[in-house]
Amino acid sequence: MTEKILSRRLNELAEFVGGRIIGNPEAIIKGIASVETAKRGDITFAISEQFLKSAEECAAECIIVPPILTESEKNLLIVDNPRFAFAKIASLFAPPSRLLPGIHSEASIAASAELGRNVAVGANAVIDEDASLGDEAVIYSGAYIGKRSKIGNGTIIHANVTVEEDSVVGSNCIIHAGTVIGSDGFGFVENNGKHFKIPQIGNVIIEDNVEIGANCTIDRAATESTIIKSGTKIDNLVHIAHNVIIGHDCLIIAQVGISGSVTVGDSVTLAGQVGVAGHLTIGDRTVIAAKSGVTKSIPGGLHMSGFPAKPHSEEKKIMISMPRLPELIKKVAQLTTALQRIARRIDKLEGGRQ
Questions:
Q1: Which of 158, 176, 195, 242 is catalytic?
Q2: If DSSP codes are grouped into helix, strand and coil, which group holds residue 210?
Q3: DSSP one-letter string for 224-288
Q4: What whole-number distance in Å separates Cα of residue 80 and Cα of residue 65?
Q5: Is residue 208 helix, strand or coil?
Q6: Counting beta carbons within 10 angstroms of the beta carbon of residue 88, is it exposed (0 to 12), middle (13 to 18) or buried (19 or more)?
Q7: N or C terminus of the chain: which is more exposed, having fewer CB within 10 Å?
C-alpha cells in the first residue's frame, strides 16, 4: 500500500513521474487540486495553453504541463502526459484507504478456506468452503466469497460484494460495493408456453488489474466462462450477461448493458447507456458513443453512435438534419401539391388535343 505523505519537494515529484522542472526545484508541494480549488502549496495540471492561462491565475505552487508549454511565472513540471503524472502524484497524497491485515472476530471463515499472507477480512464477511484468498487480499465488511472461489494477491473486495461459487478474481483487482460476480445468467427455454430455467453451470473469470464499480452484475456462463480480461475498467451500474468475453484494457461506462455471448475486443470503449444485442462481436479499439444501440457486429477501429449504431460521421449528419425535418416535410408537401396541379393541367391539355 502506498503510504500517505504530508509534503514533498518538487524535485522528488519530478523524479517520481520522470519529468523536468522549470522554476524552483526546492518548492514544497503539500497537496493536489483542480485549477478551480488549488491553494498555495498545491500542484495542479494544464493540458493546453488555454488551461495554462487559467492555472496561472490560481494559487497553485506548481503546474504540470506538456512539453509544448514552457512559459509561465509559476513553477512548471514538464511531462509527456500531464493527466497521468497528476494521477501518479495523487496516489502519493491520497492513497486508497484499506483494512489493516487481520481477521475480524465477527467474520465467518470456513475451515477449508485458504488464506494467504497478510490478508484482511472485515466484520460479517463470509469466506465459504474451499475458497482462497491471495496474499494481501482485502475483504471488507459484509462481503461474501463463495465456495471454491479464488481471490488473487492484493485484490480489494469492498463491502457487500458477492462473489458466487467457482468465480476467479485475479491479482490487484478492485471490486466496489454491492457488485455481484457470478449470479445466474438469464437463460430460459420455452416449453408449452412455460419458461424452463437452463442451469448456469459455468463461472466468471476476472483477470488481473481489473476494476469494477459499484452495483454491477456479471453473470456466470451457461457453460464455460464469462471472462473480463486484464486491465479493463468498468463503471458503476453495468450489467454483463452470461458467456460474454471482454478484452484487455477496455472502458465500460455506467449503465451499459451487454447481452449474452458478446465478444468485445481489446481497448474498446462503451460509453454510458450503450446497449449491445446478443451474440455479436465488437472489434479492437472501437468506440461506441453514449446511448447507442449495437444491433450488428462491428469491426475494429471505428467510432460508432446512434440507434442502431452507425459510423459517428453519418450519425452526426442525421442529427444535424433532424431540426430541419418539419420544414423539409412542409416543403415536400408543397411540392407534392404543386406537382399534382401540374399533372392535372397536363392531363387537360392532352385531353384537349385528342
A1: 242
A2: coil
A3: SEEEE-TT-EE-SS-EE-TT-EE-TT-EE-TT-EE-TT-EE-TT-EE-TT-EE-TT-EE-TT-EE
A4: 8
A5: coil
A6: middle
A7: C
For residue 85, give the 3-state DSSP assignment: helix
Distances, alpha carbon 101 to alpha carbons 1, 115, 140, 217, in Å: 11, 12, 11, 28
| CB neighbours of residue 163 within 10 Å | 28
- Cβ atoms of 267 and 285 closer than 8 Å: yes
Residue matched to cell numbers 450477461? 241
Q: Where are the domains of the chain?
A: 8-93, 102-313, 323-353
User: For residue 312, what is its C-alpha cell?
Assistant: 459517428
Classify domain 8-93 at the CATH topology level: 3.40.1390
Per-residue pLDDT in tens (0 to 9) along the chain, 354 residues:
444 557 899 999 999 999 999 999 999 999 999 999 999 999 999 999 999 998 999 999 999 999 999 999 999 999 999 999 999 999 888 766 778 899 999 999 999 999 999 999 999 999 999 999 999 999 999 999 999 999 999 999 999 999 999 999 999 999 999 999 999 999 999 999 999 999 999 999 999 999 999 999 999 999 999 999 999 999 999 999 999 999 999 999 999 999 999 999 999 999 999 999 999 999 999 999 999 999 999 999 999 999 999 988 888 888 888 888 888 899 999 999 999 999 888 888 877 666
* Domain 102-313 class in CATH: mainly beta
Q: Is 169 helix (H, G, I), strand (E, B) or coil?
A: strand
Enter the pTM of the model: 0.85
176 a catalytic residue: no
